[in-house]
Each structure stands twice: as C-alpha cells, then as structure tokens.
From TrEMBL:
Membrane is among the record's keywords: no
The entry's keywords: Allosteric enzyme, ATP-binding, Glycolysis, Kinase, Magnesium, Metal-binding, Nucleotide-binding, Transferase
Protein name: Phosphofructokinase domain-containing protein
Function recorded in the entry: Catalyzes the phosphorylation of D-fructose 6-phosphate to fructose 1,6-bisphosphate by ATP, the first committing step of glycolysis.
Record domain Phosphofructokinase: where: 135-441
One GO process term, biological-process aspect: fructose 6-phosphate metabolic process
Superkingdom in the source lineage: Eukaryota
GO MF, any single term: 6-phosphofructokinase activity
Amino acid sequence: MELSVSFFAARPHSCVLPVVPARPDLKLRRRPLTLRRRSAIRAQVSDPSRCRETDDDGFVLEDVPHLTNFIPDLPSYPNPLHKSQAYAIVKQTFVSPEDVVAEKIVVRKDSPRGVHFRRAGPREKVYFKSEEVRACVVTCGGLCPGINTVIREIVCGLNYMYGVDDILGIEGGYRGFYSKNTSQLTPKVVNDIHKRGGTFLRTSRGGHDTQKIVDNIQDRGINQVYIIGGDGTQKGAALIYQEVEKRGLQVAVAGIPKTIDNDIAVIDKSFGFDTAVEEAQRAINAAHVEVESVENGVGVVKLMGRYSGFIAMFATLASRDVDCCLIPESPFYLEGKGGLFEFVEQRLKENGHVVIVLAEGAGQEYVAQSMHTVDGRDASGNRLLLDVGLWLSQQIKDHFTKVQKMAINMKYIDPTYMIRAIPSNASDNIYCTLLAQSAVHGAMAGYTGFTVGPVNSRHAYIPISVSISFPALP
Ligand SMILES: Nc1ncnc2c1ncn2[C@@H]1O[C@H](COP(=O)(O)OP(=O)(O)O)[C@@H](O)[C@H]1O
Ligand SMILES: O=P(O)(O)OC[C@H]1O[C@](O)(COP(=O)(O)O)[C@@H](O)[C@@H]1O
Ligand SMILES: [Mg+2]
C-alpha cells in the first residue's frame, strides 16, 4: 500500500499537519539495464533467497527460490488438484510458470518494464507426495485480526486440496519449536477458530534461535514450515530458510506476512488492516460524540503504528470527524506559529471542539525528552514506546489552562489492544483464506524462502528478503 498524499485536510476547512509516508525502499531495487534480450542472467543478490532475472527491455523477475535449486534431482508429481471435483469446472486450474505480476502498474510508455514477481497459485507439478508431507504452522509477534483464519485455511487447504493430514501446531512462537510440545492440527480442530480474535497457537516475542529451530525441524521430520508473522518474524524466517538450504533439507519455508502496522514492503496491505481501521472508527466516533457534547471538547485517540501511521491515517480518512492526524513519518511541533496548540485553539474557536488521532509512534522524541527515560526494548529488540497519547493530552491541558487561561474538556481514548484483539471482518477473512491457500500451493510446488501477498491486487510469491526491505527501523 502506498500513500501518495503529501498534505491532506481531514475535513473541509481543517488544517492538518503534513503526511508523507512514502515507501522509498521500492525505488532502490531497480538498476540500469544493459543486458541483451535472451541473455537473462540469474543474479544472486546479497542473500541467497534473492534471485533476479533481467532482460534488455527492463523486465526484471524477482524470483523466489525453489527446492530444486539445491536438491537438483528432486522428483515431481502431478498435482492432486487434477482429480479435484471442485476444480473440474474451472477452465484453467493451474498457474502457468510464465505468469508474473508487475510491481508497478502505472508506467511510462518508454520506461523499462520493471520488477515482476511470480504469480501465486497451484502448479501442474508438485514436489511432495501428499502422504509424505509433515507440515507445521507457527505464529509470532503481536496479535492482528485474522491470524486464526490463516491458521485454519492452511490446515484446511493442505487437507482438502492436497490430502495432507500430518500438520503440527507449534505453540507460542519461535521458541515453541524447541521448548514446547506440538499439537496435531486437523480441519476439525481448527473448524471454528476464525470466529475468535488472537492466535489459537499463541505467540511470543524473542526466542528466535536459528540452529535450535532447524535442528527441531529436522528431528521432527517436518518438510513444510508455515510462518505467520510481521517484519521481525519474516527476518527470522529468512534465516531459517538459509539454514535449511545450507543443510540441503527438503523443507519448504513459507512466510505469511502479519502485521497490524502494515509495515511489510511490496504487498498492497497486510491482513487485519481493514478490520483494524474499521474498529478504530468506533473509538474515533466515541471521541467525537464526547467532545461535541461539551464546551471546548478536545478528543485524543491513540492508534497502533510503531513506525508507520497507516492505521491512524486510514481511520482518519474514513471517519471525516478528525481534525488532525499525527503519524511517525511526519514530524510535528506544539508551540508557535503552525504548531499544534495554535491549530487546536483555532478549531476550538471555529467549531467548539477538536478531534486528534495519533499513531503511537508519533512524537516519541518529545515524550522521551520530557520523561527522561532510557531506551527500552522488548524481547524481539523492538523499541518500547512511551505513551504519546497520555503525554499529548497532558501537554494540551497544561497549555490551555496555564498559558491560555482557557478551560478545555479533554477526552483521551486508547483503544489499541481492543482493536488488535477482535476477529477479522468479512473482507479480511477472504483475504486471509487467499493468503493461506497461496502459501500452501507455493510450498507444494516446491517454492521456498517466499512470502505471499497481493501486489496490485494479484497474489504473488515474493522473496522473503524483498518483503522485509521496508526502511530500516530505528
Ligand atoms: N532480525 C531478526 N532475526 C531473527 N529473528 C527475529 C528478528 N527480529 C525478530 N525476530 C523474531 O521474530 C519473532 C517476532 O518478532 P517481533 O518483532 O516481535 O514481531 P513481528 O514479527 O510481528 O514484527 C520473535 O520471535 C523474534 O525473536
Ligand atoms: O504486544 P506488545 O508487545 O505490547 O506490542 C505492541 C506493538 O505491537 C504492534 O501491535 C504490532 O507489532 P508487530 O506487528 O511488530 O508485532 C505495534 O503496533 C505495537 O507497538
Ligand atoms: Mg514488527
């Protein structure tokens, strides 16, 4: 998902601080193209999970690794979907190996054709016999609506489409590989889990130990690993894939990107994001109702987004009740001309109330300064954020009572965990199902070291290393 707005007004007549959450990472990967057509090269970029082919018309294929890259004699088999009744009526069941998805759909007539990814979906040939598959599913990192749907559909997809019945649930994130027992997942066990929030398999931060995890994969005879998680999880998945390749194991590693923050590169958006934006409306609406019912009402709503303001900005755009949106990508200041205090005062004079939405990662430097706190980290190494919502509410209150001598009615709402903990809505359920099925088709077809996701609305296989190329986090 790319935001191209450089300045936006949340509702008519309101001045909103600039918003420039560009994703510059996408631009860096194109190189000058001098190769002749038909002399496509397979280039290994910095890490082995990344192979690109380049043609002289500027066609670039960001390919995903295949098990046959390091196990050349691996036998293949006809896809069992050949015999599936459900697919019998479909004109074209299988995706052609030539099908690719363009990263950019808006291009100039004479510009190079640009970066492409393999189209996701079932292939004619598979590289696993169904009865020999032993798959596992793990969920890591923070919660997000839809995780249970993805788990359910991996299990049901493997079972119903490919006849796989040996699927293990890894409990409690990466550390579950080596410190917990596994559970057996069947369509019956996961039948109803999509109706619940959270993760049926439980999750954790920290605890990624590549050697121990791959030892465990090997010891348990697992040959397909489905890893549901955010940017940190996918970095861990890339290391697992590399180790599997180093050991020459026939193990397909598939990542399914999960993050409510939407900070995964290339894909249109992450699952659960729509649900989160929808749920955020309820908090914004409550703030609006509260502040318009009192004199000089100031509503502050804090939404999730560690380093990206996607939820805050989309909830703002959808709501139309928000006067100002603050996000980490765009610095703001409080005092003086053009500052937030001046803007709040102006809106109170004009309209009698004001609603501010802010992403939790915004203004962290100010909060740290005023609280004199040390930099804390969670078990995964993510910076622990300070409560910018509480801090901002206090700053506004102090400014108006002490400096402006003006009484205001402050209503601060922090719905963050409530938003993250709900089940996914209808459109996210469909999206999660497609992601899970794409991952299953990819792993059965022998692809590995890949993540799945929609690129310009078409599901594609993306090298894990590319999906984690979102700008480095502080
Ligand atoms: N750079 C990394 N290399 C290997 N594993 C990582 C890395 N960053 C995070 N992880 C692991 O991924 C898991 C989830 O990471 P975290 O950042 O908490 O959540 P998310 O994946 O949602 O971003 C944790 O178990 C953590 O140890
Ligand atoms: O669950 P925790 O450890 O309190 O972490 C909260 C953080 O998790 C998130 O919801 C999502 O982060 P991840 O996707 O990286 O797991 C952030 O928006 C938020 O800052
Ligand atoms: Mg993360």
